UniProtKB/TrEMBL annotation, chain A:
Name the record gives this protein: Vacuolar protein-sorting-associated protein 36
Alphabetical UniProt keywords: Cytoplasm, Endosome, Protein transport, Transport
Region (Disordered): 107-126
Residue stretches of biased makeup (Polar residues): 111-126
Source organism (scientific name): Oncorhynchus kisutch
Keyword Ion transport: no
Subunit structure: Component of the endosomal sorting complex required for transport II (ESCRT-II).
Domain of life of the source: Eukaryota
Cellular location(s): Cytoplasm; Endosome
Segments forming domain GLUE N-terminal: 1-115
Protein family (similarity comment): Belongs to the VPS36 family.
From TrEMBL, chain B:
GO biological process: macroautophagy; protein transport to vacuole involved in ubiquitin-dependent protein catabolic process via the multivesicular body sorting pathway
GO CC annotation, single: ESCRT II complex
Coiled coil feature spans: none
Keyword Cytoplasm: yes
Species of the source: Oncorhynchus kisutch
The UniProt record lists the keyword Transcription: no
SUPFAM superfamilies in the cross-refs: Winged helix' DNA-binding domain
Localization per Swiss-Prot or TrEMBL: Cytoplasm
Top-rank lineage group of the source organism: Eukaryota
Listed name of the protein: Vacuolar protein-sorting-associated protein 25
Listed Gene3D superfamilies: Winged helix' DNA-binding domain. Chain C. Domain 1 (1.10.10.570), Winged helix-like DNA-binding domain superfamily/Winged helix DNA-binding domain (1.10.10.10)
């Protein structure tokens, strides 16, 4: 479109302002990519002009003289050897920074221009063009996409490494084959931390969800005493909840305090309580620790049993500086 | 006669407020009974919370157990609900212990009066509670505030009338 002329923006005598509209794009005929370009190689230097009251920030670009082979542009002659870009809203700082970068790198001197940037005056396709101002934006965009691609592929490589490492560790645990080296452990841990993953899930096992838990429950039922593979507490609990439906002779029991235990089904409540009462009566009184030692159970489990017996009214408590001790409930049994 | 301690007094859990509700009910009943019988034995009518904590009833030094202040107040609340205790102040620092309720006292007094054929006689309060004649009676030494309440209870029943005399109060039995 070679019919445009410069204007000072003011209305002539016989003109009236009909309408103003921002954000309108200019097409040259069907050609959407219509813009004005200046090769960066033409820039001698540029400077900032700070914003003032009523004045926007500007960048002033000083240019060499027009080369002889310059393509036709909107204005054949000008008395100025510089132009100004006025940033009405913002973007001046970033633009200045990018321009500085480009001008220091002078990429047009080394890289062959492979991408033709269509301009209003560029009727010859295939003709490479030096990077223009708007072209800078495109280059930036390309670079960003490339970086993204690189990041993603790096991430894939890392994930793959991690999966392989964890598989090797899991196998070693399973087959009790050799020791997991400290190096492997450290690497594994750092992978987990860097990924922010507490529980890496591999697709190739049974996936996640009910099926996985079912399988786990079955396994647990069979090998409860053998050392387990690394399991998350949540998975363990979910699997245990399925004991009954899987006809396993185990039950998950949840106490009032929230403590959960896995116990044999044959372990009925009455039996537990009456045996606790017998033990306590026999010894006169017992603390949770003493009871634990007596039965060879954990203190936590012993305490839960004593509390249960108390709840049922078979035991009562003596709570003093000496500690918490359980007695047979004589308040009930004695007149 | 020395005071006879109940079996609970030597049972350490007695001094721990029981979490099991049923157990606690039995425990509190035993405490109420103990507190009242101790007060009766020592003829205590007024109690001070601070002093009472060190009293042997609540502080059993032999087994190194004592009832907490919180628990003592719970026991006292039980007593109040049963009509055996009255707070003298809002802060609950002092209370009246009625190990025998006024009505029960009134009955005892009237029994003695009628047994001795002293109906229609006028007594001063002093005579009644501190006179030689009543020395062997349980109500002997009864504090005045309790005596008045007891007589008022009889008055309600139409069995007595409290009268004000020159040098104090008196009572006539019917």
């Amino acid at each position: 479109m070679d019919r445009f002329t410069w204007s000072n923006g003011l209305l002539e005598m016989n003109e009236t302002l009909v309408i103003q509209q921002r954000g309108v794009k200019l097409y040259d005929g069907e050609d959407k990519e219509c813009c004005i370009a200046i090769p960066l190689s033409q820039i001698i230097y540029f400077e900032e002009q700070a914003a003032g009251i009523g004045k926007s920030a500007k960048i002033v670009v000083h240019l060499h003289a027009s080369p002889a082979n310059k393509e036709p542009g909107p204005y054949q002659q000008s008395k100025f050897s510089y132009f100004k870009l006025s940033f009405k809203e913002h973007g001046q700082i970033e633009f200045f920074r990018r321009l500085t970068e480009e001008l220091s790198q002078k990429r047009w001197e080394s890289t062959p221009m492979s991408q033709p940037i269509p301009t209003a005056t560029n009727s010859q396709t295939g003709r490479t063009r030096a990077v223009g101002i708007v072209g800078i934006e495109r280059k930036i965009e390309e670079r960003r996409k490339e970086t993204e691609k690189i990041s993603q592929s790096k991430l894939m490589v890392k994930a793959k490494e991690m999966v392989e490492l964890s598989r090797s560790i899991a196998n070693k645990i399973k087959d009790k084959q050799g020791d997991i080296t400290e190096d492997e452990t450290i690497r594994f841990k750092s992978y987990l931390l860097s990924m922010g993953i507490a529980n890496p899930v591999t697709r190739e096992t049974h996936g996640s969800g009910t099926h996985y838990h079912l399988q786990l429950a079955k396994q647990l039922g069979d090998i409860l005493l053998a050392p387990l593979e690394l399991l998350s507490p949540e998975d363990l609990v979910n699997a245990c909840k399925m004991f009954e439906s899987l006809k396993q002779p185990l039950r998950l029991r949840i106490f009032d305090s929230g403590v959960m235990v896995v116990q044999l089904q044959s372990h009925s409540e009455e039996e537990m309580i009456s045996s606790a009462l017998d033990n306590v009566t026999d010894k006169g009184s017992l603390t949770a620790e003493e009871f634990a030692k007596l039965l060879g159970l954990s203190v936590l489990l012993s305490k839960e049993r004593l509390l249960l017996a108390e709840k049922m009214g078979h035991l009562c408590r003596d709570d003093s500086v000496e500690g918490l001790r359980f007695y047979p409930n004589l308040f009930n049994s004695q007149a | 006669m020395s005071f006879e301690w109940p079996w609970q007094y030597n049972f350490p859990p007695f001094f721990t407020l029981q979490p099991n509700v049923d157990t606690r009910q039995k425990q509190l009943a035993a405490w109420c009974s103990l507190a009242l019988s101790y007060c009766r034995h020592h003829k205590l009518y007024t109690l001070d919370i601070m002093e009472v904590q060190e009293c042997p009833v609540f502080n059993h030094k032999n087994i190194d157990r004592k009832l907490s202040t919180e628990a003592i107040l719970i026991v006292f609340e039980e007593l109040r609900k049963k009509g055996n205790l009255e707070w003298l102040d809002k802060n609950k620092t002092q209370c009246l212990v009625m190990w025998r309720r006024p009505e029960e006292w009134g009955k005892l007094i009237y029994q003695w009066v009628s047994k001795n054929g002293m109906v229609n006689t006028v007594f001063t309060l002093y005579e009644l509670a501190n006179g030689d004649d009543t020395e062997s009676e349980e109500f002997h030494g009864l504090e005045e505030w309790m005596l008045i309440r007891s007589l008022q209870a009889l008055q309600t029943d139409g069995k007595a009338e409290v009268i004000t005399m020159d040098d104090g109060k008196g009572v006539k039995f019917f």
